[in-house]
Amino acid sequence: MIMRSVTTINEKMKRLGDRLIVQKNTLQCLNQECLLLKMSREQTNACIKKMKSDQDEYLHYISYDGTLIWKITNVDQKFAEAQSGKQTSIESPVFYSSSYDYKISFQGPTSEKNIASENCYVRDDTMFIKIMLDFGETLREVLPYILSVNRGLPTHIQEAIRCMKIEKYKQAREALIAEIIRNDQEI
Question: InterPro entries, per this entry (predicted)?
Fold first, then answer.
């Protein structure tokens, strides 16, 4: 009888030992899963933080007057990523043609220099691109003056300067044409 009790106790202890091993394994799995969830949460939080930072930066650049000054940093890295095929394009922050009009983004230039002025786009690993939505109203000859207008000025003053430059150019052009016609008539 004592032997039987000892055997029963030994069997119970073995079952309890087996259950203890299963519980330890389950606890290890749960700890591992908690660790993975913590890492995933940290990655998600870092991603959300980056997205908020990007969003704040983009909100800083949002324009409603059809213009955008786009600052692109780490240009060498972006070119390397594009050449390797890792990330072949970048998108500008959105900007609008007016408060109630189209939302627009821009694809960057395909060459390393501005063909018209032969100026390099990149300086100190940073590229600034000024994008103007104009619908053909601005004469090409006046564009350099318009691009040099101080962006710190209120929009209505920038627009007045643009109109003034266009008008001055048109008057000078008309005077030149009138001079040519007068000279032709004298001959």
Answer: TRAF-like (IPR008974)
